[in-house]
UniProtKB/TrEMBL annotation:
Reactions that this protein is recorded to catalyse: a 2'-deoxyadenosine in DNA + S-adenosyl-L-methionine = an N(6)-methyl-2'-deoxyadenosine in DNA + S-adenosyl-L-homocysteine + H(+)
GO MF, any single term: DNA binding
Top-level lineage group: Bacteria
Protein name: site-specific DNA-methyltransferase (adenine-specific)
Organism: Paenibacillus antibioticophila
InterPro entries xrefs: DNA_methylase_N6_adenine_CS, MethylTrfase_TaqI-like_dom, N4_N6_ade-DNA_methylase, SAM-dependent_MTases_sf, TaqI_C
UniProt keywords, alphabetically: DNA-binding, Methyltransferase, Restriction system, S-adenosyl-L-methionine, Transferase
GO biological process per UniProt: DNA restriction-modification system; methylation
Length: 585
């Protein structure tokens, strides 16, 4: 684990300056500030790679260009960037950079902008960078003048609006703060400005959007942050912006590694975006950010060289993903996962499950057959209580009092209307419409039949109800009280404990089956049709203890726990589960 003396080691390594030991009070305040701001300290070797990826190197006249760090923290990026800037400018001035304060100020004043909101971190940066500059030969006065230009204390998401300052390089590690962890008032302000803050998008998404707006033509941005936005629902708007307006130059999948000084579970990635038309992207996946691997990554990403190491996976993507499509870098990944969850697991309708998947009754004239008795006077013997999709929008049945008219005898023949005078009178009032249906035209003597036969015994059978089009798995239990209407699909228990089956069916793994096969509707909605539900494969050998735990987690509403249980039943790793969760969110 890191103590905050590590930042001084960075200073010593990069700036040739050995800072005095930080006092315990300073260490504590930095730790508290880090927790509040969602900061993770990036390792120096990762910082140097990112600076190289955007081309912020000493062989360029960096004083003629501009670099922005949107959330500077303790200076993990800023310190080596200043070091490179000074070295580059010293080369240009042949070592005479600090011979004249005014000349040095004019050369350097616009080269860097560092944005930091936190009071303590801002002061820490001022003191630390000031000492670094003075160690390299700058006067105290020049240091203060430069820092007054370079360091900006403000909320980055409210700074430079409308955008008037543009930058050649933007680097950093944006804060990972969940939107629900900031005040509602502030969240509304952010959302009113940043259109990519869609659904439950976290604050780092707005940092990416605002930073991209500030790129000069052909400028480059490189961040290290969580890779959640690349696949899940809340990232779809930022994916669209990047895919339509920018060139994805590099993408590094390093979520199994530890690029931060602290041990954190942030699932990190590194990406480089250029303000330029779409072009070829180089992608790389590695599970260890060792110096050797980082050097190999640098050579491949910047030069396209071959990597002779099975531990590093590389791809060249000629045409980056378009629109809001998830960025599944290994195009075969989803298929491989689907094959794994399908392997050795029988289809839902096959033994030993023996579950029936069906759809509610289609009548061809819902407004006539689905009624409320207080509004339509027919014999009660022909009425079955029916559940419609609007009855289950909250995850349980809130019955609206509808009934479906059953015009059949138990043997499937149509009832004799002469024995049901009220029903006959009702049907006769709507005879023209009923006869206009295709099913009636094909069977003129059975003009009052429904498209599907009604089986009264289905009413008393426990079943799970699923609406056709939904964003998430909505699986509602009917313990045997209703007949489903045509807008609902149903699943029987088969050999399963129906409540355990309900819990399993709301998991991300089951949604992955639907996601893999079903039609995607506008707005990421999926069609939960019988043909796709029948493609679900269920695990075998599930124990009574598993069933009880699934039911308990469902009662608690702990869907993450359900996912963990179900992933174990399908023999998935934690990483495979997370990939599935990201794909289907």
């Amino acid at each position: 684990m890191k103590n905050n003396l590590d930042i001084d080691q960075v200073i010593q390594n990069k700036m040739g300056y050995a800072a005095p030991e930080l006092q315990p009070k300073v260490i504590d305040e930095l730790d508290q500030s880090k927790k509040k701001s969602g900061s993770y300290y990036t390792k120096p070797e990762i910082v140097n790679l990112i600076l190289d990826l955007v081309g912020y190197t000493v062989d360029r006249p960096l004083f003629k260009q501009s670099l922005l760090e949107p959330s500077t923290g303790e200076g993990a990026f800023l310190i080596p960037a200043v070091d490179r800037l000074i070295e580059s400018t010293q080369n240009y001035t042949k070592g005479a950079l600090f011979a004249d304060d005014d000349n040095a100020f004019n050369l350097l004043q616009d080269a860097i902008r560092s944005i930091e909101l936190d009071d303590f971190k801002h002061q820490f940066l001022h003191d630390t960078i000031g000492r670094c500059l003075q160690q390299r030969g700058a006067s105290i006065d020049l240091s203060h003048r430069l820092l007054s230009k370079w360091l900006v204390q403000t909320d980055f998401l409210f700074w430079n609006i409308p955008v008037v300052h543009h930058f050649d390089y933007i680097v950093g590690n944006p804060p990972y703060i969940r939107i629900e962890n900031i005040t509602e008032t502030l969240a509304k302000k952010y959302r009113s400005i940043y259109k990519t803050l869609f659904d439950r998008a976290d604050i780092y998404i707005a940092f990416i959007e605002h930073s991209l707006e500030m790129l000069q033509e052909d400028g480059q941005l490189s961040f290290i942050c969580t890779d959640r936005f690349t696949k899940n629902r809340y990232g779809k708007e930022i994916r669209r912006v990047v895919s339509e307006l920018y060139h994805v130059v590099h993408f590094l999948d390093i979520h199994n590694s530890q690029p931060f000084i602290d041990e954190v579970s942030a699932y990190p990635c590194i990406f480089t975006f250029r303000n330029a038309p779409r072009g070829e992207a180089r992608t790389l996946k590695m599970d260890d950010v060792s110096p050797e691997n980082l050097e190999n990554a640098r050579k491949y990403l910047l030069e396209g060289g071959e990597i002779d190491d099975d531990r590093i996976e590389t791809h060249t993507i000629k045409d980056w993903f378009r629109g809001q499509d998830p960025w599944v870098l290994n195009g075969e990944l989803a298929q491989e996962l689907l094959k794994k969850v399908e392997a050795n697991h029988p289809l839902i309708s096959e033994p030993p499950h023996n579950i029936k998947v069906g759809i509610g009754v289609a009548t061809g004239a819902t407004s006539i057959y689905v009624i409320k008795p207080e509004k339509v006077d027919v014999e009660p013997e022909v009425l079955l209580p029916t559940v419609i999709k609007d009855d289950i929008t909250h995850g349980f049945i809130s019955w609206s009092g509808h009934y479906v008219i059953n015009p059949y005898n138990n043997d499937g023949s149509l009832v004799d209307l002469e024995k049901f005078p009220k029903l006959k009178a009702y049907f006769m009032r709507h005879e023209e419409l009923l006869r206009s249906r295709s099913t009636a035209k094909n069977n003129p003597n059975k003009w009052y039949k429904t498209i599907d036969r009604i089986f009264p015994e289905r009413l008393s059978e426990p079943k799970l109800l699923i609406p056709d089009i939904k964003l998430k798995n909505l699986i509602v239990l009917d313990e045997g009280n209703y007949y489903p209407e045509h807008s609902l699909y149903y699943i029987t228990a088969g050999t399963w404990d129906i409540k355990a089956l309900q819990a399993l069916l709301v998991s991300s793994i089951i949604k992955f089956f639907i996601w893999s096969y079903a039609t995607k509707m506008r707005g990421d909605y999926l069609r939960y049709q019988a043909q796709y539900l029948r493609k679900i494969r269920l695990p075998i050998g599930i124990t009574k203890e598993d069933c009880e735990e699934l039911k308990r987690m469902y009662e608690l509403g702990d869907y993450d726990a359900i996912d963990r249980i179900v992933s174990r039943l399908y023999n998935l790793t934690a990483d495979e589960l997370r990939t599935i969760q990201d794909l289907v969110q």
